[in-house]
């Protein structure tokens, strides 16, 4: 299978009408991976795959607009009839299982074992999921957070997750066919934990990617304005990520 990206949601920091928060279905080799699980994305995911078809789930960080629909997924799979033959491997920063089980008023993460097999992300973690190769890199954010590089059949996708400018993003994105990149901030602030559209465009230019796909645009910008600003710096093919869009990488 060629490397494809289906956009499930792009909104930040909360969902809007017809616009769930961050979430993507990544398909390559023989694998199907749900990347980030922002509010509203579990419903969108079911337009494309059944939970039992997922090879894995990958969560960039534990801010609610990237992980909170694991609550809906656990309820749907555990109690709602969306059965799985075996627990779905779930790669996430440390503490994800405790946070999820706590939502249900429990303290023992083992209660989630029938649904998810939790595995901690780490900087430089490499996975080969049936021909889909994933590499996680720690990036600069307000909490433990990771960007992702995905490779299959000679095609390469890089995903920023949430991050301020940092060397790890450049390394993840180097030479990628598609850079899926946040453009949250209208202007850079002293904290530097997110990117502006200009940062996204500069990253795409410096990493020599083939195309830039702009996502996770903050509330002070429109996706269209963010894409236009990023394109002005990048100078290459620049697109707006939109829910429902299926994108061929490479």
Question: How do the helices and strands line up, and which of them pair or pack?
Answer:
Elements: E1 4-9, E2 23-28, E3 31-37, H1 41-45, E4 56-58, H2 64-67, H3 70-78, E5 88-92, H4 96-103, E6 116-120, E7 126-129, E8 132-138, E9 146-152, E10 155-159, H5 167-173, E11 178-183, H6 197-206, E12 211-217, H7 223-234, E13 237-240, E14 246-248
Parallel strand pairs: 3-4, 4-5, 5-6, 10-11, 11-12, 12-13
Antiparallel strand pairs: 1-2, 1-14, 2-3, 7-8, 8-9, 9-10
Helix pairs in contact: 6-7
Which descriptors would you attach to this protein?
Metallo-beta-lactamase, Chain A; seven-stranded mixed sheet; 250 residues; 7 helices; alpha/beta
Separation of the first and last Cα atoms: 12 Å
Under CATH, the homologous superfamily reads Ribonuclease Z/Hydroxyacylglutathione hydrolase-like
CATH architecture call:
4-Layer Sandwich
Mean of residue pLDDT? Answer: 96
Sheet with the most strands, sense and barrel status:
7 strands, mixed
How many independent structural domains?
1
Sheet/helix structural class: alpha/beta
User: Could you give the order of the helices and strands?
Assistant: EEEHEHHEHEEEEEHEHEHEE
Global outline:
globular
Helix content: 10-25%
Radius of gyration: 17 Å
Low-confidence stretches: none
Count of helical stretches: 7
Q: What is the strand content?
A: 25-35%
Q: Which CATH class is shown? A: Alpha Beta
The side-by-side strand order for the widest beta sheet comes to 6-5-4-3-2-1-14
CATH topology: Metallo-beta-lactamase, Chain A
Number of strands: 14
């Amino acid at each position: 299978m060629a490397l494809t990206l289906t956009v499930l949601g792009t909104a930040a920091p909360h969902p809007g009408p017809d616009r769930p928060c961050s979430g993507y279905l990544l398909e390559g080799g023989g694998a199907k991976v749900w990347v980030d699980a922002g509010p509203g994305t579990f419903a969108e995911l079911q337009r494309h795959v059944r939970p039992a078809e997922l090879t894995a789930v990958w969560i960039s960080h534990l801010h609610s607009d990237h992980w909170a629909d694991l609550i809906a997924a656990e309820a749907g799979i555990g109690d709602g009839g969306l059965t799985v033959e075996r627990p779905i491997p779930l790669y996430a920063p440390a503490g994800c299982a405790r946070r999820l089980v706590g939502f249900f008023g429990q303290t023992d993460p083992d209660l989630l074992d029938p649904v998810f097999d939790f595995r901690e992300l780490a900087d430089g973690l490499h996975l080969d999921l049936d021909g889909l190769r994933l590499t996680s890199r720690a990036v600069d954010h307000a909490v433990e957070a990771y960007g992702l590089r995905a490779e299959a059949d000679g095609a390469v996708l890089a995903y920023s997750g949430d991050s301020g400018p940092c060397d790890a993003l450049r390394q993840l994105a180097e030479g990628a066919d598609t850079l899926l990149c946040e453009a949250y901030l209208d202007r850079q602030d002293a904290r530097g934990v997110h990117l502006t559209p200009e940062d996204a465009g500069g990253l795409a230019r410096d990493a020599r990617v083939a195309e830039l796909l702009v996502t996770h645009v903050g509330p002070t910008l429109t996706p269209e304005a963010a894409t236009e600003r990023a394109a002005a710096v990048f100078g290459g093919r620049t697109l707006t990520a939109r829910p429902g869009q299926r994108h061929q990488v490479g």
